[in-house]
Amino acid sequence: MTHALRLSTGGAAAAAAALLIATRWPFAPRHLYYFDNINFALAIERFDPSLHQPQPPGYPLFVGLTRLLHLAIPSVEAVFFAAGILLAVAALLLTRALGERMFSPRAGWFAAWLLLFNPVFWLGGVTHQVRLSLAAGGMAVAYACWRARETGHARWFYVASGILAAACGFRPAMIVYLAPLLLWTGWRGRFTLRQWTAAAALFGGIAGSWFAVTVWASGGLVAFWNLLQGYAQEQFHGSSLVYGAPAQAAGRMVEAAFVWTFLGVFSWIWALPWLERRGVADRGTAGFLAVAFLPAFLFHALIHVGDPDHTLITVPLVCLLGGRTLERARINVPAAAAAAMALNVLLWLVPPPGLARAASARAVRAVDRITSATFDAIREQQRAGPVVLICYEGRVTWRHLSYYFPDVPLYVLHAAADAPAWLLRGRTMEEPEVRDGAYVLPADATVLWVVEPPAAPSIDPPAEAAGPVFRSGAGPFSFRHYRFVRGQL
């Protein structure tokens, strides 16, 4: 254990990378995991937030990182996996460093160990790698702010400002999460107006560079602003009271924020009975952690948290508390480390019922199974001749289908009764042919419906199951308010 605590930064990075690859690779999906991942894959080819390549607000520095990796790694799936390893290594090293500065080397080691096996951190590493930038960026800003508090030197205040500006290029929401900590650090440090101005100029220079690129790629400032407003309303209106969501949905989101933020606590809370009473953190440390934690947590509880790994900005802070707890507990160190690892692995592999299941290997495997089975079924039908796809809301999204089957005509249906169908071909939108209110499909193509089984009865006449997809005959046929006919040979 002593040797592990004294590893050089390079040695610690290599060890972290090896552990991350060993624990993440077996669970990595064979295809891009979800809608947002496809957006980022398309952004490697063309960066345009107005086309959701990627989704607003753009994440330009993460796109830049993936483009660099893509120069050496042909597979887009492997590109995102590699990006996740790099960001996770940074998060682990920074968590260890902050824990060491804030508490002790052993506490820092424990905190990084807890983060490594935390189910939410694990999920981010195999599914939504961009969200690992929350952990890496959050810990980097927190470390620099702590050093500014510790030393009283303005240069660390400048470093924190520059890091926050760069981190926001990976995840722009970090300005909301971390600006209070930066401002609190400057206020507590009693820096001069000149020092505040220098920090603001540094932040503006770095953030302005990627922001200008994003605005330009989105079609200008007005277009970008309208894009942000529309996206925020779309994302938040169903779960946030602030955006008009019903109380039940808002309460569910508060519950999700608690569960996903504190899920990893179960791996170390058992050590509390053995806790030494001496060495309680001073008020300054508690205040620092509160300012670092509360803005993001309140945002997740009241405005938006949609997936477990949205909380990766706060999860490392909880791991710091866990590291401090294990360091102060009167328990054999290897035994404590083994117990914490085992409990986290258990949470990942055999999650408790409810919201915790979303941050588990079971959730990842379920999505991967249905995605792979759907793609295999489509390819099987393609061997017999041309196909046309009709997609209605489900786990395998139209974005997946248009990305992995770009040459197949794809009709996208919507729940709204007045919403017209989209036609995509070659990943671009086309005007569908309509005859007497019915969409005209290719005469010689097999029609495959990509819908969830509960929606399949809406296909009239009934379609034949072909694995996880459904196959229709000659037609005409309908689905809810949509009607389809065949074209001429």
Write down the overall geometry. Answer: globular
Strand content: 5-15%
Distance between the termini: 74 Å
- List unreliable stretches of 5+ residues: 1-5
For the sheet with most strands, the description reads: 7 strands, mixed
Protein model, in words:
The protein has 489 residues and is of the alpha+beta class. 58% of the residues lie in helices and 9% in strands. It has 18 helices and 12 strands. The protein has helices at 2-5, 9-24, 35-45, 60-72, 76-102, 105-117, 119-126, 132-151, 154-170, 174-189, 193-218, 221-236, 247-262, 283-302, 315-328, 333-349, 361-382, 398-404, and strands at residues 387-391, 410-412, 422-425, 428-430, 434-435, 438-441, 446-450, 459-460, 464-466, 469-472, 477-479, 482-486. Strands 4-3-2-1-7-10-9 form a 7-stranded mixed beta sheet, covered by helices on one side. The chain has a 5-stranded mixed beta sheet with strand order 5-6-12-11-8, with no helix packed on it. The radius of gyration is 25 Å and the shape is globular.
What's this, in brief?
This protein is an alpha+beta fold and 489 residues long. It contains 18 helices and twelve strands. Helix 3 (35-45) runs parallel beside helix 18, helix 9 packs antiparallel against helix 10 (174-189) and helix 13 (247-262) crosses helix 14.
Tags for this entry?
alpha+beta; 7-stranded mixed beta sheet; 2 domains; disordered N terminus
Task: Chart the SSEs and their pairings.
Elements: H1 2-5, H2 9-24, H3 35-45, H4 60-72, H5 76-102, H6 105-117, H7 119-126, H8 132-151, H9 154-170, H10 174-189, H11 193-218, H12 221-236, H13 247-262, H14 283-302, H15 315-328, H16 333-349, H17 361-382, E1 387-391, H18 398-404, E2 410-412, E3 422-425, E4 428-430, E5 434-435, E6 438-441, E7 446-450, E8 459-460, E9 464-466, E10 469-472, E11 477-479, E12 482-486
Parallel strand pairs: 1-2, 1-7, 6-12
Antiparallel strand pairs: 2-3, 3-4, 5-6, 7-10, 8-11, 9-10, 11-12
